[in-house]
């Protein structure tokens, strides 16, 4: 009886742990992508900067509504 009552809790705990891990990975990758985009936009010349800003605005809007 003890093992039977214990099993669902372990399943729930492992699921919660994996979902937290996945959410953390998602936020870390999103943060790294935004850092890379900022660095690349700073490196590129002023002439192309406005086109890239427009592109990034479109991408961020897509990400927000996704």
Structural account:
It is a single chain. 94% of the residues lie in helices and 0% in strands. The protein has 66 residues and is mainly alpha-helical. The protein has one domain. The relative contact order is 0.06.
List keywords for this structure.
single chain, 66 residues, mainly alpha, 94% helix, 0% strand, membrane, transmembrane helix
Radius of gyration from the CA trace? 21 Å
Low-confidence segments: none
How would you name the oligomeric state of the polypeptide chains in this document? Answer: single chain
Q: Whole-Å distance between the termini?
A: 46 Å
Task: Please give the largest β-sheet.
Answer: none
The number of strands is 0
Mean pLDDT: 76
Strand content: under 5%
- Label the overall shape: rod-shaped
Which structural category fits the helices and strands?
mainly alpha
Total helices: the number is 2
- Return the domain count: 1
Helix/strand order? HH
| Secondary structure: helix percent | over 70%
Brief summary:
This protein has 66 residues and is mainly alpha-helical.
Please render the helix and strand layout as text:
Elements lengths: L1 H42 L2 H20 L1
């Amino acid at each position: 009886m003890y093992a039977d009552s214990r099993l669902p809790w372990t399943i729930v705990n492992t699921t919660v742990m994996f979902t937290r891990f996945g959410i953390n990975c998602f936020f870390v990758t999103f943060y790294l992508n935004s850092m890379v985009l900022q660095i690349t936009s700073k490196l590129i010349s002023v002439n192309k900067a406005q086109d890239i800003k427009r592109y990034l605005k479109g991408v961020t809007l897509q990400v927000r509504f996704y």
